[in-house]
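Final report, section 2: Outcomes. Of the targets proposed, Exosome complex component Csl4 is the one most frequently requested by collaborating groups, and we therefore present its record in full.
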Amino acid sequence: MEEKELEEREEELQVEEEIEQPEEGTVKEEPADNKIVLPGDLIGTSEEFTPKEGTFVDKGNIYAATTGIVKVNSKERSISVIPVTNVPPHLQVGDIVIGQITDVKDSVALVEIASIKDKGEREIINVDQAAIHVSNVKDAYVKELSAEFEPFDIVKAKVIDMRNMRLSTVNKELGVMKAYCSSCRTVMKKENGRLKCPKCNRVETRKLSSDYGTGVI
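The predicted structure is given below as tokens.
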């Protein structure tokens, strides 16, 4: 009887181990404390992780490309940012959007829109690359657009034209929310209306949002 009971117990333990194992071909994803991040937030390095959905890489650092929750795949050593809603929003004139400057030309700054204020953070389904024309930057003459925006900057802007995908940063709450030093890519600190790099002490200017550095959308 004792041998039979031992055999039955071994079978029970084997069944419990099989239940605890994940299905073949699946990988358990572990959130990094379910941390919610904004576009441009540093979430890791390419030495630590392989960047996946919702991220971009610059100089070996991995940043969030959208607002969402950080997810780490411990088996693949990959990292991604998962949008926090399931319904893809539609972009409309008058919407306030968050995006990243991808290029600055003589008369326009190109923007990749990441999310719409108050409409969730899923990938937007009806948007191409947008642009901020030099005439829609602020209520003042703009001599050089590069003094207002730089690539990788995170901006808050208003949609004013859907046909040509035009944005505006004229109001005080609109403009650059987070700026990166054009030399060393460190996040710049606001000092007396200008921006100073805490790493290399470079001073730069931007068309700043009144919410710069607050994380408030």
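Confidence is low (pLDDT under 50) at residues 15-31.
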